[in-house]
Amino acid sequence: MLHRRILAALFCIALCTPLVVQPANRALPAKPPNAKPAAAGLPSHEKQWVQRWMKPMTLHDLVAQLIVITSYGEAPSSRSAAYRDFVHQVRDVRVGGIIVVNRVVNGTVRNAEPYAMASFLNRLQRFARVPLIVGADFERGASMRVSGTTKFPHMMAYGAARDLALTRYLGAATAREARALGVQWVFAPDADVNNNPDNPIINTRSFGENPQDVAAQVKAFIEGAHSDPKNRVLVTAKHFPGHGDTNVDSHMGMPSIGADRPRMDALELVPFRAAIASGVDAVMTAHVAVPALEKPEIPATVSPAVLTGLLRNDLKFSGLIVTDAMDMQGLTKQFPSGEAAVRALEAGADVLLMPAHPEEVIRAVLNAVRERRLTRKRIEQSTAKVLAAKARVGLDRTRFVNVEEISDVIESPEATDKAQETADRAVTLVKNDDSIVPLKNPEKACWFILTESRGSQQGRRLQDELLKRSKDTRYVVLDPIAPAIELEQAVQKMQDCDTNVVAAFVSSSEYRGKMAMAGNFPSLVTTLLSAKTPLVLVALGSPYLLRSFPGVAAYLTTYSVAPPSEAAAVKALYGDIPITGKLPVSIPGFAAYGDGIVTLKR
């Protein structure tokens, strides 16, 4: 009877398990007879799991493990086409991981909800034969992608605050919240040296323009993220070999680094060397041209000279090389999806991030093996690294999120206080004619709050802080699609003020192409400058905004659009906190690196 039950159960499993037809690989080159095992050199625990997971894999499966697909952190209905596609990619195609990104609707960024995201990740993990690794660009903590988490300022604020203990805390808190949400791979810190004020995509994502200071900040973040073995995450230095000295958004085209190799050694590569010395787990490539090392039409992501010659051989990095998103035009304008993937693997990459068509990529790589552009051994080496990383972060023990414990971790009072402390210490006063800041009569100031999109949350915390001090505070919130007549009416209503304060949100965002006030906002500021009332400009985000409006009476910058930075700006203008921040970048023609006017608390 027992044997019959066992046979019946096996028969049921056979019927219930979806039939997955893998590409035939009989014609593929066999594994070299004396090839070094892919798991060689790994710690015994990681080696054990690499061998266990790899043993039943076909070549198709090995390649699929190198692919990380896109998710918005939402929980689609099981009856939806989106859900069925996720199940197909995870259960049938057997991709190796998922990255959580923002959804943008009508120009407004929408973050994932933590509980829905965790629940859906659990659901997908149940379909995965090998645990999925989940990544996210948590550069300023989990709040960059997920609501309800600690809202840390942007990285440049840490460069201005100049306290490595705060950066270590950011790394540790990011790891803690990431693991609570089901994320094991953090695509941070940004190791770019932003020495180009016209950079439209890095800007405040960088710690600053001084390579040694950026290196110290990168090291501190990694130390913090690796400080608690219970919350072990993979951390990633990006965007190699450096995206700071560029003026093109690589989402829209291919930027070029014009520096020669000696300049790169002295500037761009300094933070990456520090990251490698600090045990960084991964390095993300940049879709940038590097004429000093490679043909100008070849992005670094697909360059053997950059990834193998420079990163592997010269810098001695042996960890994971992950591409930047493969759906970005800095790469797609050069090569089709499949060809780009093959070239990235040929160049030395291990993980293919966000390809637009994962199955097309797998077919292209399999064909490349048949054609002997790639070898099975080469694929096995990268797959072994991916699987070892999964074991390193504990996916061999548990792949599921404890949803009930999320609220005990995210947005803790201590983390919130640390975020606010950083924002307060980052505020930098660059110009202060007649010592107008702190405001002598803040209750008689008029505020113009210039947001970046209609319906965004920008300015909410700032309004709360103003009304907390006086219910009679005069302010107006405007968005960039407001017609000129609406802006004129706003100016007309704001008469008889001692001071006009413009709080302008200007952040880096993909596909925008520039860092500047949007819509008719520049004209509004010009109109206010022509009035007799002194104007204080507060840059919530890019510190370079002063270049466009040199006639302002005072200029403050927070380097961040995060809510704590909004609060810090109000506190600074009211004299509730001292202003002590120092510029981590120079503002050409106006201020040097390290400048910053210090004021005392009132």
Record the SSE blueprint.
Layout: H1 2-16, H2 44-54, H3 59-64, E1 67-71, H4 81-93, E2 97-100, E3 103-105, E4 108-110, H5 114-127, E5 133-136, H6 155-161, H7 164-181, E6 185-186, H8 211-225, E7 234-240, H9 261-266, H10 270-277, E8 282-285, H11 304-314, E9 320-322, H12 329-332, H13 337-347, E10 352-353, H14 358-370, H15 376-392, H16 413-426, E11 428-432, E12 445-450, H17 460-469, E13 474-478, H18 484-493, E14 499-506, H19 521-529, E15 535-541, E16 554-557, H20 563-574
Helix pairs in contact: 2-15, 6-16, 7-8, 7-16, 8-10, 13-14, 16-20, 17-20, 18-19
Please give a quick description of this structure:
The chain has 20 helices and 16 strands.
Helix content: 25-40%
Report Rg.
Answer: 26 Å
Strand order of the largest sheet: 9-8-7-6-5-2-1-10
- For this structure, what is the CATH class of the largest domain? Alpha Beta
Mean pLDDT score = 91
- How far is the N terminus from the C terminus? 86 Å
Q: In the CATH scheme, what's the topology name of the largest domain?
A: TIM Barrel
Counted by DSSP, the helix tally is 20
- Category from helices, strands and their pairing: alpha/beta
Please name the fourth-level CATH homologous superfamily of the largest domain: Glycoside hydrolase, family 3, N-terminal domain
Gross CATH architecture of the largest domain: Alpha-Beta Barrel
Shape: globular
Number of strands: 16
Largest sheet: 8 strands, parallel
User: Could you list the spans in which at least 5 consecutive residues all have pLDDT below 50?
Assistant: 1-35
How much β-strand is present in the residues? 5-15%
How many domains in all?
A: 2
